[in-house]
Amino acid sequence: MPGNETIPAPGPGASLDQWLTYLESIHPVEMDLGLDRVLLVLRRLMPARPRARVITIGGTNGKGSTVAALEALLLASGESVGSYTSPHLIDYNERVRVNGSNASDEAFIRAFEQVEVARRDTTLTYFEFGTLAAFLIMAEAGVSNMVLEVGLGGRLDAVNTLDADLAIITSVDLDHTAWLGDDRNTIGFEKAGILRPGQTAIYADLDPPPSVLQQANAQRVNLLRPGNGYVVLQEGGHVAVMTDSGHQVVLPGDRLPVHSLAAAAVAATELGLSLSDQRIGEVLAGVSLAGRFEQVSHHPDVFLDVGHNPHAAQWLSRRLSFLRRTGGYTRIVAVYGGLADKDSAGVARALLPVVDHWLLGRLDVPRGLSATALQDRLGSVIPMGRLTVCDSIREAISEAMASAGAEGLVLVFGSFFTVAEGRRYFSASP
């Protein structure tokens, strides 16, 4: 495929921002699913597979939480680990972490320079270029574990160019339907593309689609999932995961999805980490993740969440219902900003029973919806008396704080861009 290079490759001394601007210019489309081009460049960069153990995490929702939990468990066991996630909230450096710290600008620039030389006339998307750079950064650091989050789908995602020693599929639901299909079974087939013959894998959520089970059976994968290999017990506010091999780990029941944490606990036992069940529970209790039900202010209590599809909104709805019962909140107000390719109406339906008032804000980003466009989508779902249109996310947050009152709760959510605006708003607050 011919390139679309509108700017020359950065020279010596170029900044990370200059490199990122260049990466945005070298492929004619944002997404170009397929492994051939990435594999070609990967073989030039890494003729042999990295020595590190590779743990690949795919799924619709819950991937970032699972990565964070596994990273914490590996570090607590004394192992070195590199992790790769996307997208980022504020800084690109968030995408690659080495032993718990974001990779430096210098590490990214060195890796980008190597990828640029190796690709020759092969075009790579922004994500593909960054994925190969992440592999190089981890290899340079000499980590013994690589925890990799799939960007989109699984089968044709750049992360899937490395064979996983352990694969985790967190959930399968409707999202990115233009690329992955418009039903769970078709999407499940794409997610299950990260499985490898004879490996152990984990499906974290309940009710896997038939395509995932079929792929696992066809490849003789030992697929552990709730009810088959382990169970997740929730009683009286207490949550625990119990494995068929005799492990029992108490899980935290708030902030992050329980099934993601359970999958990380099961993975720790499968990987043979030198941690007792009690220690696994203690480590998981301390895991937090920016933008995943992250509390950033009090009176009113303000939470940020990157949930952007109906499946994620259902989890948020359950969490908010629990907090209303236990926290005594008098009013729950949502600030919502979304992208054009997301099911905004489905998100609103999931949260309508628990949210008292909605404030819609404009997202000034590619695919971002104006507040009036959001209103058009949600007008048949949210009664007009419970909905306010604002010029920006910042204005919506200010109005939400006043509307909620000191004893209320504000949820700022809808996309990574919405949460990034929320984090900037509160970091600048006195």
From TrEMBL:
Transmembrane segments: none annotated. GO terms for molecular function: ATP binding; dihydrofolate synthase activity; metal ion binding; tetrahydrofolylpolyglutamate synthase activity. One of its GO terms (cellular component) is cytoplasm. Residues 57-204 form the Mur ligase central domain. GO terms for biological process: folic acid biosynthetic process; tetrahydrofolate biosynthetic process. Functions in two distinct reactions of the de novo folate biosynthetic pathway. Catalyzes the addition of a glutamate residue to dihydropteroate (7,8-dihydropteroate or H2Pte) to form dihydrofolate (7,8-dihydrofolate monoglutamate or H2Pte-Glu). Also catalyzes successive additions of L-glutamate to tetrahydrofolate or 10-formyltetrahydrofolate or 5,10-methylenetetrahydrofolate, leading to folylpolyglutamate derivatives. This is Dihydrofolate synthase/folylpolyglutamate synthase. It comes from Marinobacter segnicrescens.
